[in-house]
Specification:
The structure holds two protein chains of two kinds. By secondary structure, chain A is mainly beta. Chain A is about 0% helix and about 45% strand. Chain A contains no helices and ten strands. The model of chain A has no long low-confidence stretch (mean pLDDT about 90). Chain B is mainly beta. The chains are: A mainly beta, B mainly beta.
C-alpha cells in the first residue's frame, strides 16, 4: 500500500504486560514519528527518527517506553509493564525528510488503540 | 505558555457560513506551518500548508502573521462535511524537526 501502515489496530492488554506496536512508513520517507493521543486530547510527541541518525527520544514519558527503527524503515514502539494511563491511540507518521518546509508534511497511519485493563 | 495554542471551540455554524480559526505559536524561529484536519476517531490528515504570502485552496484560505506569531484558517461557504477538528501544526524551529500540534479547534456545521 501507499500509505503508513500500523498494526495492530486495536490492542487490549492487562496492566503489567509488555506490548509492541508496529509502524510501516511510506516507502522513501526518511523521517518517522510516534505520537500518542488520549481521548479528547491533542497529539503528544513521543519519539522521532531521521535516517540513520540517533533518534530524538525527548518525548518518551518514562523508561518503560522505547522504540526502534530497523533498516531505516519499519519501526516498533515497545511499552513495558503497561499502566492504565498508557491507554491511548498511538499514531505513527512519516515524512519525506525533516528539515522544515514542505518536507515536513506528515502522513499518519490509522493508529493503534491501546487499552490497558 | 504552550508552544501552539488554539481555541478549542466548538464553533457551531450554519451551512454556507464563513468561519475563521486562529492559532498562536511561541517560538519565533518556527519555519513551517500547516493545518491538519482530524475527523472523530480518525488520524489527522494534511489540509494545507501555510505560506508566508498566504495561500488559498478552494474554499480554504490560510494566512501567516510572523510579527504576531499566529496563523489563521478561513473556511468559506461551509459544508456539513467540514465538521471536524482542525489542528494547527508548527515546526522547523532552530534545528528541531519535531512538528508540534495544537490541541485543535472543533467545527460543527449544521443544516
Amino acid at each position: 500500500g501507499a500509505g503508513v501502515s500500523q498494526s495492530p489496530s486495536n490492542k487490549v492488554t492487562e496492566k503489567g504486560k509488555d506490548v509492541e506496536l508496529r509502524c510501516d512508513p511510506i516507502s522513501g520517507h526518511t523521517a518517522l514519528y510516534w505520537y500518542r493521543q488520549s481521548l479528547g486530547q491533542g497529539l503528544e510527541f513521543l519519539i522521532y527518527f531521521q535516517g540513520n541518525s540517533a533518534p530524538d527520544k525527548s518525548g518518551l514519558p518514562s523508561d518503560r517506553f522505547s522504540a526502534e527503527r530497523t533498516g531505516g524503515s519499519v519501526s516498533t514502539l515497545t511499552i513495558q509493564r503497561t499502566q492504565q494511563e498508557d491507554s491511548a491511540v498511538y499514531l505513527c507518521a512519516s515524512s519525506l525528510r525533516a528539515g522544515g518546509g514542505n518536507n515536513e508534511k506528515l502522513f499518519f497511519g490509522s493508529g493503534t488503540q491501546l487499552s490497558v485493563l | 505558555r504552550k508552544e501552539v495554542e488554539q481555541d478549542p471551540g466548538p464553533f457551531n455554524v450554519p451551512e454556507g457560513a464563513t468561519v475563521a480559526f486562529n492559532c498562536t505559536y511561541s517560538n519565533s524561529a518556527s519555519q513551517s506551518f500547516f493545518w491538519y484536519r482530524q475527523d472523530c476517531r480518525k488520524e489527522p490528515k494534511l489540509l494545507m500548508s501555510v505560506y508566508s504570502s498566504g495561500n488559498e485552496d478552494g474554499r480554504f484560505t490560510a494566512q501567516l502573521n510572523r510579527a504576531s506569531q499566529y496563523i489563521s484558517l478561513l473556511i468559506r461557504d461551509s459544508k456539513l462535511s467540514d465538521s471536524a477538528t482542525y489542528l494547527c501544526v508548527v515546526g522547523g524551529a532552530g534545528g528541531s524537526y519535531i512538528p508540534t500540534f495544537g490541541r485543535g479547534t472543533s467545527l460543527i456545521v449544521h443544516p
